[in-house]
Write a structure and sequence with these properties.
The complex is a heterodimer of chains A (408) and B (254). With 408 residues, chain A is an alpha/beta fold. Chain A is built from nine helices and 20 strands. In chain A, strands 2-1-5-7-9-11-14-16-18-20 form a ten-stranded mixed sheet, covered by helices on one side. In chain A, strands 3, 4, 6, 8, 10, 12, 13, 15, 17 and 19 form a ten-stranded mixed sheet that branches. In chain A, α1 runs antiparallel to α5 and α6 crosses α7. With 254 residues, chain B is α/β, with parallel strands linked by helices. In chain B, 35% of the residues lie in helices and 28% in strands. Chain B has eight helices and twelve strands. In chain B, α3 runs parallel beside α5 and α5 packs parallel to α6. The radius of gyration of chain B is 18 Å and the shape is globular. Classes of the chains: A alpha/beta (408), B alpha/beta (254). At the A-B interface, α6 and α7 of A face α2, β7 and α3 of B.
Chain lengths: 408, 254
């Protein structure tokens, strides 16, 4: 049985522990409880008010669940919708999983340490909920599962814990949106995510963040990828947020395991982002790629990437490209660490402005200066992501398209 | 019609074009010769409207309108287009998207690409890793979609392999309406009379003359334009005695 008592004890000791990086947040500024929201069965979920529907769409969440394999929707601290529409896929609120299933002990707090900092501590001691999503061995999903963690209550600190398991030979796609009510000003989101990609499984995880301007966000996530597995992680954040700091870690522990991280961040004035990730390549044949595109539009963006090659015959590449178009800061921190003969590791980092020559080139084809700039920016943000289903690619393009006005 | 009168241009404080007079009538194509650094590309960039080429004297007018100080995109919208020698790479912008932009989403991009053997490049980032010849075909493809009335070609045959030179030459001829095969409705003369596309082509090696009927040759030397009516004659003269002598000869003639 899972010894939650022991975990909570360890977590409690870290309740004041500052994170290794990122601005320190005073958790006393937030409340940790909210009123309960009713569970919405299919028909009522499909019938959400128009403005909420549109807002959720911005984060890739379609309440009509067209072309979705299932949905997990949490509002504040309550699960309001949790359904799977496809055989071989399980979606369980984590609180329910902790009560009912013994196997959860093999996954809960196994990759992220419970006493890493005050945020992990808060997620352990004051867990609201979260999802456990599991693709059973050999199951292949065509459509993605959508998950949304929504904050409606002013000043709430939402503590969630998610576990995603792609069993052997399965294929799972997820699109997750985090969002807030259009009226919300201040709030905090702490999200623990632990990813298990087993032998020859494939997981694509696309996260679109859509926060309120005064939100503080501290995701804490880690992944393990076994032999022949593929973990594709896409992160898009185009909307202002007060402070976002995350540094997910991935361990490639089986031969030929692959991890690819793509992130697209637009930092508006008053926003501070400290994002990046670390991938350990521990077995021959493993491959890792971190690609970041950041645009500062007056915000501060620190874009990190750290690749650690522990054995020979690994390949890893890091690409951080930043554009500053309206003041602000882009700080690219690429790190490569090779521990053996025969590692192939490279990085490419560039911070700059839009080349005037490119603007003129497009203008000579008939575009106005503004149109030329937005065409170049759109190109800069469009990253080819191999292995991503076209439908998710379309979601990403849509998110970029819709927030383009904010960029300019 | 393009009319340039007494044009003087500075680049970064240096005078690079001196008292240029040039007139291209509808249907006419001129070819521009001159050694490296003589100001040929600068003249094209000035006509296109690149602001770093500062017009300090004279005027440029197109279709009767003074465009001396118009921004680039207004000139493009009026019907001026350019085939660049070394265009910038735009990452993330697919060649297909650029062709669509040129054709204002009305062009049949696939069909046009087929004509210059470029279908397989449509989904590649614009100019990213393109060879010299591929850049030319990409530029021509964009002009085909844009279909401007005045086309400026900056060394369209440089870097093009022997196999593709005919393709490039014939494409330019078609763009400039130089193909005049008589049809049932129209005689060759009629087609020629209805021709209204204008061209200005920079060339070093003159291969383009084998494919495109050129009306006039212009020789640019040290920022000064001297003119002859017969492009082949200029080309022969340059080949035999060099640019400098050729300039002297044309000055003597005038």
């Amino acid at each position: 049985m899972l010894n939650r008592r022991e975990l909570i004890d360890r977590a409690s000791k870290a309740s004041d522990k500052k994170a290794a990086i990122g601005p320190d947040i005073d958790l006393m500024d937030f409340v940790t409880s909210s009123e309960e929201h009713d569970y919405l069965p299919d028909d009522r979920f499909h019938d959400l008010p128009e403005d909420e529907k549109n807002l959720l769409l911005l984060s890739g969440v379609d309440v009509l669940e067209k072309e979705r394999a299932g949905t997990y929707f949490q509002k504040d601290t309550s699960v309001v919708h949790c359904e799977t529409k496809q055989e071989g896929l399980e979606i369980i609120p984590i609180k329910e999983a902790l009560e009912k299933y013994d196997w959860i002990k093999d996954y809960y707090w196994k990759l992220v340490s419970v006493d890493a900092d005050k945020y992990t501590s808060a997620a352990a001691t004051g867990l609201h909920n979260g999802y456990v999503i599991r693709a059973l061995p050999g199951s292949k999903s065509v459509y993605p599962i959508q998950a949304c963690l929504y904050i409606g209550k002013e000043g709430l600190q939402q503590n969630v814990h998610n576990i995603i398991i792609a069993e052997e030979d399965s294929e799972l796609h997820m699109i997750t949106g985090c969002s807030t009510s259009p009226h919300l000003k201040k709030g905090m989101h702490i999200g623990i995510s632990e990813f298990y990609i087993k032998k020859n499984a494939k997981l694509s995880f696309t996260m679109i963040h859509n926060w309120a301007e005064d939100m503080v966000v501290r995701p804490r996530s880690a992944a393990v990828v076994e032999e022949g597995g593929l973990f594709l992680n896409n992160y898009i954040c185009m909307k202002p947020v007060r402070s976002l700091q995350m540094y997910p870690t991935t361990h490639l522990v089986g031969n030929d395991a692959v991890a690819r991280f793509y992130s697209i961040i637009v930092g508006s004035k008053g926003s501070e982002y400290d994002v990046g990730g670390r991938i350990f390549l521990k077995k021959p044949g493993t491959r890792a790629e971190i690609v970041a595109r950041t645009i500062s539009n007056g915000g501060r963006i620190i874009s990190r990437g750290h690749l650690i090659g522990e054995v020979s015959d690994i390949k890893a590449h890091l690409e951080c490209k930043g554009l500053i178009i309206n003041g602000g800061l882009v700080y690219a921190v690429p790190e490569l660490e090779g521990h053996a003969d025969g590692v192939e590791m490279s990085h490419e980092a560039a911070v700059g402005k839009i080349a005037q020559e490119e603007i003129y080139y497009l203008m000579s084809r008939g575009l106005s200066e503004d149109e030329a700039v937005s065409t170049i920016v759109r190109g800069f943000l469009s990253v080819d992501i191999p292995g991503l289903p076209p439908q998710l690619k379309a979601e990403i393009d849509k998110a970029i398209e819709m927030s383009e006005k904010d960029v300019m | 019609m393009l009319v340039i009168e007494d044009l003087q241009v500075e680049l970064a404080g240096n005078v690079i074009l001196k008292h240029i007079d040039l007139e291209i009538k509808p249907g006419e194509t001129h070819v521009l010769f001159g050694p490296n650094g003589s100001g040929k590309t600068s003249l094209l960039m000035t006509i296109m409207g690149y602001p770093q080429y500062k017009v300090v004297g004279g005027t440029i007018s197109f279709k009767g309108e003074d465009i001396t100080h118009s921004p680039i995109h207004e000139r493009a919208q009026m019907g001026i287009g350019m085939s660049y020698q070394r265009p910038p790479t735009i990452h993330g912008l697919k060649t297909r998207q650029m062709v669509d932009i040129c054709g204002k989403n009305q062009a049949n991009t696939e069909e046009l690409a087929r004509r210059v053997n470029f279908e397989s490049f449509l989904d590649r980032d614009l100019n990213a890793g393109f060879s010299g010849g591929e850049i030319k075909r990409s530029e021509l493809l964009q002009l085909m979609a844009q279909n401007p009335d005045l086309m400026l070609f900056d060394e369209p045959e440089s870097g093009v392999d022997i196999e593709n030179i005919a393709l490039v030459g014939e494409t330019i001829a078609r763009l400039l309406q130089k193909e005049c095969t008589a049809t049932r409705d129209k005689s060759r003369l009629q087609i020629k009379r209805e021709r209204n596309k204008m061209g200005l082509i920079i060339t070093h090696i003159g291969h383009i003359l084998d494919y495109v009927d050129v009306d006039k040759g212009q020789l640019l030397f040290n920022g000064v334009l001297s003119c002859s009516t017969n492009p082949r004659e200029i080309f022969r003269c340059i080949s035999e005695v060099g640019y400098e002598e050729c300039v002297r000869c044309s000055i003597d003639e005038n």
